[in-house]
Amino acid sequence: MSLTVLIDLDDTLLLNFSSAVMPAYLKALSHYIPDVAPDLLLKELMSATKKMMQNKSPKFTLEQVFDQHFYPGLGIPKQELVETLNRFYTEVFPTLRKLTEPNPEAIRIVDFAFEQGFQVAIATNPLFPKIATQQRLDWAGLSSDKYPFSLVSTFETFHFAKPEPAYYMEILTQTGWLNQQAVMIGDNYNFDIEPADQIGLAAFWLNAKKAEQNKSFQNTYSRTGAYAEIIPWLKQISTECDRLEIHSQAGLSSVLQATPAGLSTITSGFDPSSWKYRPKSDEWSITEIVCHLRDIDREINLPLLKSVLQIEDISPIEIDLNPFMNETNYYRENGSGALSEFVEIRTELLALLSTISGDDWNQVMRHAISGPTTTKDMVAFIAKHDQTHIQQVFAALQNGKARKKAPKG
66 with 155: CB under 8 angstroms? Predict the structure, then answer.
């Protein structure tokens, strides 16, 4: 069976990044901006980076989170610094290449994954802009011009960072939730391995020191070892494992976080025709999919969750599906506006979900679709429903691209 392979960049594909490049990068950047004291710049840079790593909201990309904290901390509007920062990444950042070296063993692993037809995503912590991330891939000998990565995570397009479990689910959302197993490869237990392993991915922890090898794993296929052991490990998993199944509370909640976040990135820059395109006359457009997700949350999922938490006196069994399940006006709605509404409703649902623990997670309710069920089962139902419609979105995108290309032939 095919795999989705998530692989870390810094200190996994590219050597010496943390030990050599990061100190030099911070020093160079802190002295590059005129009229800003180096100590102040470093303080605000680290503070804004911490805010990105703590973000749990699907409303904001990491770039937006960074902008909300970094520039006000310096007391300088972004528009006054953006040209200077772009020049830094164009002229100064490339000089740090000499401090790194590509990893031939890692390149062999990536080559093998593509030869097998696996989907490969660069799961680097998305705390850098795209220009810096693409350069680091070039330094690693893995240019995106040569390797067709399905995704490279950067702060412009991601809403969550490591070690948030939702970061991994956002990768899977943005790559279409393929019906296959997913694995994570990285060098850092706390950022790469533990969160991925605990939400259901098989994880391979590289170069762990012997004193640290007693760390526990949730997934029976997660391993600790050297680069030479990864290809046999990938072969084993592709042979023995079926599609990825998410069962943990953290994993299921992360799927719910990632859906509105991923949809926001997927649809960014859409023109009206892209929102309205139907692959076939009897299939939904992306606007209709988003409206459906919004109304399922608003009319079923959110009221049910409020009833479990006794926020409102609701009788879920009386919820009527027909007014919105048979809705014929979805196609006429504004897709971007419907997505904004979905993000708001899902954010409210996630806030309530974050308060649930212990007995409430196993509270029995009567679901309007599936009948008597627990809170955990309801969340699993929502997660599966999300995944199905993300797959539907990608099918529409692929068919749309094919349709647009056809006349050129």
Answer: yes
Q: What DSSP element (H or E) covers 307?
A: helix 302-308
Structure tokens at 222: 């997660």
Task: Kindly give the pairing relationship between strand 101-102 and strand 181-186.
Answer: unpaired
Please tell me the distance from the alpha carbon of residue 182 to that of residue 123, in angstroms, as a whole number: 12
DSSP states along 127-189 = -S-HHHHHHHHHHTT--TTTS--SEE--TTT-S--TT-HHHHHHHHHHTT--SSEEEEEES-I
Average pLDDT, the chain: 90
Delineate the domains of the chain, giving CATH numbers in brackets. Answer: 1-245 (3.40.50.1000), 267-408 (1.20.120.450)
For residues 198 and 167, what is the distance between their CA atoms, to the nearest angstrom?
13
pLDDT of 216: 84
Confidence of residue 407 (pLDDT cuts 50, 70, 90): very low
Q: Residues 334, 337, 341, CA angle at the centre, nearest 5°? A: 135
pLDDT at 228: 95
pLDDT of residue 305: 86
CB-CB contact of 195 with 74 (8 Å):
no
Looking at residue 209, its pLDDT comes to 66
